[in-house]
Amino acid sequence: MDRERIAVALSGGVDSAYSAYLLKKEGKELVGVTFKLSFFKEENIRKAQYVCNFLGIPHHLIDVNQEFKNIIDYFVSSYLDGLTPNPCALCNQIIKFGKLLDYIRMLGCCYLATGHYCRLIKTEKGEIYLAKGRSMFNSQEYFLALTPKEKFNSVIFPLGDYTKEEVKRNIQKEGFYPFPIEESKEVCFIGNSTYKDFIRKRILRDGDYSGQIKHHNGKVLGTHQGVYFFTYGQREGLGVSWKKPLYVMDILPSKREVIVGEREFILKERFFVNHINWFYPPSNYRNLRVKLRYNSYSLPCDIEISSHNRILCILKDKREVPAPGQLAVFYDRDLVVAGGLIEKESAS
């Protein structure tokens, strides 16, 4: 890999900048690439250009506005369908490790480096495994679990053995990134808006999604302004009163209803996961772990294969209902076994 050209995806942030710095320090031949997006701040592009100028490498912009429109459409339609989307996972699958990989090959690059905190383990037989990074709470393999594993043959993660705090300290010490260090936003295209306002601006008639809030016993407790205001397991902001705390149990867009109930009714130990992206079949489908949210602890579980594209996840203990549409990632210790989307149960 010493003489092969590497493209570094530069967002203007500290993680990608330090990734480029580490590779340049190793003597790699680099090219910087940055997405051109309508919502992307010009300031971030200038930061990426500054990093490239400092390192003495060329910089290219790639327009992915059309591809991102599909991501935004998926985000909005998921909430309107009563699902909780994960746009970052889809972006990685379709854009970062899809279109961007194709683009860098036209630049004569063999590899793409990003600032993700995760690791790739390559065996002598040429097999590749996606693994957790050293940083326990910033490890980002969760967001990559929908990306086909063959894509990672052309990917490098320079920050896999670093923590976020180490990167912040080191980049300040080296003195080549003279900008305030900002945390990445959870959903980049939202900007300063809220999810609700962002979605509301993109629907024709708000009243098409308003309706009733019902207790699971059928009693009407109140009304709501839109099903997209709610997520599974939500407790705050329901706008109804009851003798016990209530949580969102189900969202029924076709009826425009939000079903709520006491905590014991949102606890589950079994759920299905579909759209499975396999990294490798474990030797044992027992005693795995599953992560249902980024920056949350993984939970002990067993899995049963319903079909190649569907898994039944059996938790060791009942937990709050996972949000349909969200990402579930299965692990064998530090290695990612598979990733998929949590399936919505059929209405009874």
Short overview:
By secondary structure, this protein is an alpha/beta fold.
How would you describe what is shown here?
This protein has 348 residues and is an alpha/beta fold. It folds into 3 domains: 185 residues, HUPs (Rossmann fold, 3-Layer(aba) Sandwich), CATH 3.40.50; 59 residues, SH3 type barrels; 76 residues, Elongation Factor Tu (Ef-tu), domain 3 (Beta Barrel). It has 6 helices and 17 strands. The strands form 4 sheets. It has a 6-stranded antiparallel β-barrel with strand order 12-15-14-13-16-17. It has a 5-stranded parallel β-sheet with strand order 3-2-1-4-7, sandwiched between helices.
Lay out the secondary structure:
Elements: E1 6-9, H1 14-25, E2 30-36, H2 42-55, E3 59-63, H3 65-80, H4 87-106, E4 111-113, E5 118-122, E6 128-132, E7 155-156, H5 164-174, H6 195-200, E8 211-215, E9 220-224, E10 247-252, E11 257-261, E12 267-278, E13 288-291, E14 299-307, E15 310-320, E16 327-332, E17 335-342
Parallel strand pairs: 1-2, 1-4, 2-3, 4-7, 8-11
Antiparallel strand pairs: 5-6, 8-9, 10-11, 12-15, 12-17, 13-14, 13-16, 14-15, 16-17
